[in-house]
UniProtKB/TrEMBL annotation:
PANTHER family, alphabetized: TRANSMEMBRANE PROTEIN 69
Pfam families recorded: DUF3429
Transmembrane annotation, as ranges: 7-25, 31-51, 72-99, 111-129
Name under which the protein is recorded: DUF3429 domain-containing protein
Alphabetical keyword list: Membrane, Transmembrane, Transmembrane helix
Natural source organism: Marinobacterium alkalitolerans
Top-level taxon of the source organism: Bacteria
Length: 131
């Protein structure tokens, strides 16, 4: 996998970690955290969308609809009270990580997703405990 993808992936953790460390410093911090999380969750569905469009064997209506789930779940999460938001985001990240594991067989991507998902979910748990 391209080295730049690794750097960008890990850099994408900065808002998760930074907002978690800055919890309580500003009234908009919780909103910024869950909004960023929903955007990143949507991005993960977009990865599968791109793969589905580039591989004819993956271009089915069912697969394309599944690619939309992270976006819809992220949006739905933003409509819930904070505890529900965090629980739905945690569950969505874990389920989508599992989906990635069985659908995408690139070892570098799998390893990167494991690291990124672990840190993101850990940050969500910290927020959940503090809520």
């Amino acid at each position: 996998m391209i080295r730049t993808a690794h750097w960008l992936g890990y850099a994408g953790l900065i808002p998760f970690v930074g907002l978690t460390l800055g919890m309580g410093l500003h009234p908009l911090t919780p909103v910024a955290f869950v909004t960023y999380s929903a955007v990143i969750l949507s991005f993960l569905g977009g990865i599968h969308w791109g793969v589905a469009l580039s591989r004819p064997e993956w271009s089915s209506a069912v697969r394309l609809c599944l690619c939309m789930l992270p976006s819809l779940l992220g949006w739905l999460a933003l409509l819930l009270p904070m505890t529900g938001t965090l629980v739905l985001l945690i569950g969505s990240y874990l389920i989508w990580w599992g989906w990635d594991r069985i659908q995408l067989d690139q070892p570098d991507y799998r390893r990167l997703r494991l690291h990124l998902t672990a840190v993101a979910v850990l940050c969500h748990f910290v927020w959940l405990i503090q809520t």
